[in-house]
Each structure stands twice: as structure tokens, then as C-alpha cells.
Amino acid sequence: MLPKKKFVFIVDEAHRSTGGESFEELQKVFKGAAWVGYTGTPMFDEVVGKKGTKTHEVFGKLLHAYTIREAIADKNVLGFKVDFETTIAEDQMKQEYLPKFYKAQHPDWNEQDIERKIANLTDNDMDDMIEPSFYDNNPNHVRLVVEDIFKNWRNRSNDGAYNAMLTTHVGGNRPSTPMALMYFNEFERVNQERAAQGLATLKVGVTFSMSTNNSDNQLTTNDGLLRAMNHYNKMFGTNFGLDDVSGYTQDLTTRLNRTAEDGQYLDIVIVVDQLLTGFDAPKMNTLYVDRTLKDALLIQAYSRTNRIADNQGKPWGRIVNYRWPAKNEELMNRALSIYANKASADVQETLVDTKELVDAGVLAKSFKEQFNEVKHVVDKLADITDTFTEVPASEAKQEEMFNLMRTYSSGMSKLKQYDPETVNGEDVGFDYDNPDELVTLLGMTPEQEEMLTTSLYNDLKERIAQIHDVPVAQIELRMIHVKDVSVNYDYLTELVEALMNAVHEERMDVAADYRDKISDFAMALEDRHYAKQINNAADAIYNGNYPPEGRDVTYPVQLKSSLDIIHDANTIIVKDNIFDFRLKWGIIDVISNDEILELFGRHTAGKQDLDSTGRISQLKKDARKEYQSKAQDKDVAALNKITYGNELVAALYKFADSYVNER
Fold it and tell me: Residue 586: what pLDDT?
């Protein structure tokens, strides 16, 4: 007997966790219980038909709806960029592939029967959950899909920053694992070819359940899985076999979601149905779909790609479809109409227009729309920076430029992820082999783009940091470069060498010129800490403070590298600053440079953590005894003992914060 209590059951994944006999038994036992269900893909008439079990029939009237559209607007998940590719042109499909396919399927059909069928394909004919199709186990199709993945890998993966999943399925109740293995074999064949040519390869894995059904396909399936596992073991130094398929799958998922402890990851994983639902991998941004997806499964599968990772590097979840392009686009629109439309939680009668989904951020804009938005921003930046030559003088304009640069960087990141292709006779997308083409179309020269995204960007960050009185590191602005910016450190070495020789020879006009060139070099560096160190060293050399007196230096200087000079100069500068601090506060005999450096080395900016060993309390006590006679700053020496002790500690923390922020 159950106690007379009121029970509430809260059910997650309510669309698929309430259909079994155990659920019916629970309802019988807990007759008066309340049932609350959570699901992102509830079952409606449109999804399961009139006879299927609808979610509202189990849980009752809708309490609250929060759809993928609202989640995207709230920046809890990303929208989607969906492409519909075709490996086989429609004419070729109708004239070559489909006649052969239907002749093999129906040997008794004549040509008229086949032509009639091709002209009247049904939804079921294009649904591989129901019927087979000419795409199934088609080696030419597989070859062309893999070719497309390699061709566009840099664009779709953000130059390898993210990884992907490929799902395939065979119709007519036939096993799909052979086709998954066809893909695995083709990837490995292409990898071997590319490796021999010195080209980049992809780390590919495959996972599916081991066959135990004693079918004719069991041996082939399990042999294929074992071969894939052996390949995986060789890549990652693991030792999985058919006796631990679950362990293999678990390890594989860590390399897909990039949580593997050894830091080694997969680029792409081939699956049939595994991992398409309930699997979160923020570092996975692309799903390659060689099958028919629809309704709840489509939303669930697409959603493997749209988890938040880095809105700039991963602006959307990427989906690439390879079968029945027109039909699969229709199925996508239908699924999004149902599940991205708040009204569909109760009833859904009409499809949502694709433009409405684009405007809502559910689907990505076309390349042309995105390009025009970035072009508009570039035009504004050209105006505000006097054609990419300088940061504006006024703080208001600097703030405006800061916001424009954010928009530019976000837009450029998106543009770089559009595949290079021809649409309606016009070349669109980003070509990694010719990056300057996009820059030119946007209205900049390559030199202006580099100036904008290096020197002006760094100058702007430093000015914004000054306006808001925060360290530069706290300014959240990250640039997307159209191409890798090469840093010529040999050139820096030449400049430092020339500066040292000019100062030694007292040719200060020439030295000033080299000093300016070093400043320009440093301004273009993304590593602002090292840029500051370069400038510190150059100032010390120019002002005659480096090399220090007594240092044995042979002139004219000939440097192999400027690295040691910059490091040595900055070490001396830090020690000089600490020494000056000790003189100012009259603690020259109370604490050494090395002790202060040791304290600062354990410090976290903004934290009151210097006195964890009691050293600061002791310093404060000892310093009060002699500061009035030893402090070289008259204002410090004039302080009373209580005020002096408090201000000394405050100054130490300020000095420590500055030291940590500039390291």
C-alpha cells in the first residue's frame, strides 16, 4: 500500500521516455500522481499522426513553451547554417541512376513503368527510414561526399578549430553499418593519398553497436568494427577490442567533445544512430547528413552542433545534407515550423517562411547578405580611421570604432566559414588559397586590412583600457584575420641591433628613427605583453639605461636574436622599479628585491593575498621604525606611523597588481 501522499513525477526527454510498459505500470500504481514533462521535441499530430501517442495526451495541457527560437534569441544556443549539396545532378539522377536502381529493384518493370515511377516519386521513396534509394551503398556517392568534406574542411571547421560528425542510413530495413564502413574506408584511402602528397589529413573514427543478431551480416559488421577499433588504437595508443565496445564508444566521445585527458582529438566521427540525441559537444560544429532526417529526429540531430562554445569562432551549428536536396530542405522547413514556432506547442497549420527563420536567427543569412553587412561596417571603419591609418582622437569616436571592430570581427568570422562556390553565376564564399580576394571585395587593400586588424586594433584596445582605467587584458575585443599574420622576428633583431649601435655612436636622430620602427613593429603584435616588453627594452636602450654600466659589450653589436636582449632589459627594469619603490618607502634595509619578486610571483591581481605567510605584517611593523629617516620621498617620510603602514601596504598591492597584469 502506498502512503496517502501527493506525488509529482518530473520527466525529462518526455517525448521518448513515456512509451513503454513500465510507464503504464507506474501510472496504474500512482493513480493520483501529477506528471510534468520537459522536452524540446514534443510529439504532435503532425509528427506521429492521428493514431500515435501525443505528448499532451500523456501530460495534459501545455504549461509553458520555450522554443529553439527563443533559446537562440537569448543566446543559450546557436542558430544553424544549413547547406543542401548534391553529389549527383538531377538530370544524371533521372536519366542514369534511377532507371538502373528501379530496374534492379523491379526486374519485371518495363521502361514505361520506370519512367512513371521516376516522374511520381513519393515521400516514402525519399525516406530512407522506409524505402531504399540509389544513394544507399553507392561508392560514387560516398567518394563525392568525402571529396566535398576534404575540399571544404577549412571553411566548415574554422580552419580545424572544431570537429564534425557524419551520419548515414540505408533504407528498406537493410543494415546501415556497411555504408558507415564504406565511408570509413574512403576516408582512410583519401588520407593515405593526401599523406603521400604532404597534404593535411583528418583523424576519423566510426562507432556503431556490435551485431549480435546472428544475421548473415553479423561477421562482416563485427570485423569492420574491429578493424576500425584497431585503427583507433593505433592513433591514440589505446587497446580496445570487441569485448569492450562500450568503453571504446565512451573514449571516442571524449575525443569528439574534446575532453580527452591526453589532449588528442578526432576530426570527424561516422555514426548511424549513436550520438544523434542527448550528446553535447560544444567543440563540434558540423553535422554531415547522408540520410533523411525529419521532425523531432531532425531537430535533435541538428542540435548536436549548436551548443555555445565561442560565438565568434562558432557563430552557428553547421549542417551539410547530401541526399534529395529539395526534399530535405522541405523537411527542414517543416521541422523548424513545428519546433521553432511557439504556436506549434498547441497547434501548427502552416509552414513558417524561411526568411522569417533567417530574420529570427534560426537559419544563417546567405553569403551575399552577410557580405553586404560586413561591407557596410568596413565603409564606416574607413571613414572613422581616415582610410585605415589612425585611431580617432576623440573618446566618443574610439568607443564607436570599438563597437564597429567587434561587429567587423564577428562578421568576418562568419564570411570565412562560407564555402567557396558559384551561385547563379557569381563566385561567393571564402577561398583560403586566395584570401586577399575577399579583402579587396570589401573595399580594402591587404595592407590596409593588416593595419586595421593589428596596429589600429592594438592601439584602440590600449586607448579603451585607459578610458575605462582597466588592464588591456580585460578589454574583450578579438580580431579575426583574413589570413595568418606572419611576424618577422629577424626584422626586430635587425632593428634592435641598429638601435644599440646608433645610441653607442651617439647618432640620436638615426636612433630615434629605429626606435619608431620598433614601436610600429610592437604595435602590430597580438601579444600585448611582449609588445610592451619590446617597447620597454627599446626605451631603455634609447635612453642609455641599457646595457647597464659595467656590462662587457663589443661594438658594433651583432645579434643572432633580440629575445635575450629584450628579456634582460626587462628584468633589469623590473628590478630597478622595485629598488626605486624600496627607496621611496624607506624599506631598503627591510626587504630585498628578490623577496618582493617572490611575493609578487604568488599574487593574483585584485586579491589581498600577499600576507599569507605573515611577511607583509612583519614588513609593516619593521618599516615603521626607520621610514622617517630612510624614505627618500618627503611626503612619505612626513606621514604618521599608522597612515604610513596602511599606505605602504596599499602601494605594495597596487605595485603587485601592475606587475602581474604586465607579465
Answer: 94
